[in-house]
Amino acid sequence: MAATIGKTLRLAEFWQAGTKSLLVDATLPGALGPLPGLESPSGLVERLAPRAHGLILNPGLAERYAGHFAGKLGAAPLVRLDWTNLPRPADFALPPHSVQRVPLASPTDALQIGASAAVASLLLGFDEDFEAANIQAIAFMCRESVRVALPLLADVVLAGPKIEPAKRDAAIQLGVSFMVEAGTDGIIIPLPAAPALDLLLDFSPVPLFLRVDTAADLDAGRDALGAALAAGCAGIVIGSHALADAGPVLDAAGALVGMAAS
Amino acid sequence: MNAGKQQRLYRILNPNDGRAVCVAADHGWMSDFTPNVAELRRIVGQVVEGGADAILLSLGQAMRLGELLKGRRTPALLVRADWMNAPRLGGSNVANAIPQQELRHLAIATAQDALDLGASAITIYLFLGFDDETEARNLATCAAFAQECRRIGLVCIIEPLAVGASVTGANIVDVLITGARMAVEVGADMLKIPFTGDVESFRRLVEAAEVPVLALGGARSERDTDALELVAEAIEAGGAGTVFGRNVTKAPDPAQMVRDLVAIVHEGRRVEEIKPVEKPGVIQLKGLTDRCTGCLLCEINCALVHGYGGNPLYSTVKIYSPQPDRAYKRKTIYTPRHCTLCNVCVEKCPEGALYIADGMVHLIEEKCNACHICVDECPLGVIAFRDDQPIFCDLCGGDPACVLACPEDAIIMLERGGGNGAG
Q1: Which residues lie across from B80 on neighbouring strands?
Q2: Do B59 and A171 touch (CB under 8 A)?
Q3: For A19-34, how does the pLDDT look when each residue is reduced to its tens digit (9 = 90+)?
Q4: What is the ipTM of this complex?
Q5: CB nearest to B83's CB, from A135, A177, A180
Q6: Within chain A, where are the H helices?
Q7: Å from B30 to nearest chain A CA?
Q8: Largest CA distance in chain A
């Protein structure tokens, strides 16, 4: 019971039922180095924290810059528990030869850093060993998150060679189903088509957040995102690539979220 | 058995008869997002309403739906402590969102996690028929869970499944019996296991286990009565009940399906009492997968006796063999198929040219316009077609040619609603 109320209170630090939240994911420099707009670790926290309900950081920055958050007035800190080389393009300075995902911290570590929630990736579409290990890791994090009363969000990413464009929505549904059954407390997903999203919203007992990776995606998908928020999605997660010129992007995303919440 | 296990065992089994009607509702943890997954909350509510003894959920769903299980006479909670990708193996299933090619099976929780949620038992798979390493690793996982369950007083249910490459129609019964015994030897308190196909072999399995054995139903049966008959036979063989999944969660009325199962398992009622046979007849055929070798003599003899020169194309019994499954690398399994009086052809015929009487489908020739719809719609593919007319099984006047021809007794004759007419 204590764990339940603990999770409820911490989740409410950045999202509550009936509201819409804007989350910002600033973790990609962990794989890609200093991205445009995210060059300064301390600066990104100071700049982004007042603009969002939640700021997703890797554990190192979350700990080092804990004092740069604005308390109740700014974003709640969310800590990413794992790392992947998936975002690296083939022409990157350290080109990836195989996809990797490794743990960076545990829910207990995140709690000790002062996080309001933890975030873990479910990378779908890769081989059996990779998928099984990923699911097992998240399942164990779920158990630990219950014990330490820290909400755990799953970030469902469709990326592997097994993802067929024609089955994209079904793959998103599979990922959500897996993460609900695993016991996560919220799920970040790419935007599916409206019929698939309606089914998911009826099904999911936990909040669904929509991932927007780039400013162009936000611009092109504004109507669809607005409709999805109105249909019941819990909020938007703005990805690191969209933060090169963060001001207009966060203004636009904030307006979408605000409109849906009103 | 320690006190904790004893208490929890009788949260699952009815203390009066030592039997249980359990429902598996953990499919969303391992397979596609199907309606029975999407509507789980409603379905669990109906399972509770139907009076099930226990329900199997994933840990995540147990945390959220556990509130539906509050109360003295509500189902006990069983928690799935592992994860696997078996339902997603193979690329031919168009509903498979992200197909997988090789089996993966992992523990994803501890027994203590399940106990903390208020569970009475955990359930874990024991996959049989794959390579030696997979079997050994899986057995070690089962043993580790069994030991943890012993320490904390939680019931350990092991679910042997015979699905690997080494499993054939000829050896599947032996594999399941072996798996049942292996599970007990490492510490299972109860088994959840596929029905072996007939009373005699399932009795051997039950006797080899000496722990309560719950028969599972597998894929949803075409007719509820098929599923209920499976349970009745499992009980006759000494089974302790059932763990039905899709036969309940995909049923039009899950609560009624549970009530029907309760009537059979706990009240000793016969299937015919619950679901009166609407289509009268004297005899019926039954195909036995575990005996069939795929020799096709039944098809040939059927076509021969009916004057079609032994051409299997015109036979109304068919040997079904799924496409070899690369994922499982399994050897071919053959299933004799015959008319089950499912009524689909009668319902689909646009001319009303078909009706069922005396245990078979009859054709009103003057109404038939040779549209072929009955042939196309037959879910079992056992309607032949020749000379612009469909051909239906006529049971050979009570002495079926397929039964006579089969050297393995893989097709037998039953008295409709009664015992074995073949003696």
Answers
A1: B58, B123
A2: no
A3: 999 999 999 999 998 9
A4: 0.76
A5: A135
A6: 2-11, 29-32, 41-48, 59-64, 107-113, 128-148, 168-182, 194-203, 215-220, 222-231, 246-261
A7: 7
A8: 50
* Residues of A contacting chain B (CB within 8 angstroms): 124-125, 128-129, 131-133, 135-136, 139-140, 142-143, 146, 162-163, 167, 170-171, 173-174, 176-184, 199, 202-203, 205
DSSP class of residue B247 equals H
Closest CB to B38: pick one of A132, A142, A202. A202
Give SS3 for B237. Answer: coil
pLDDT, tens only, B101-152? 889 999 999 999 999 999 999 999 999 999 999 999 999 999 999 999 999 9
B1 beta partners: none
Rounded-to-integer distance, Cα A212 and Cα A225, Å = 9
In angstroms, the CA B215 to CA B231 distance is 7
Residues 6+ away with beta carbon under 8 Å from B145: B81, B107, B111, B122, B124, B156
Does the reported pTM lie above 0.80? no
DSSP for A140-183, written as a single string: HHHHHHHHHT--EEEEEEE-STT--GGGHHHHHHHHHHHHHHHT
Minimal Cα–Cα distance from B376 to chain A, Å?
Answer: 28
- Asked if residue A125 lies in contact with residue B98, where contact means CB atoms within 8 angstroms, the answer is yes
Tokens linked to A97: 């030869």
CA nearest neighbour of B111 among B124, B102, B93: B124
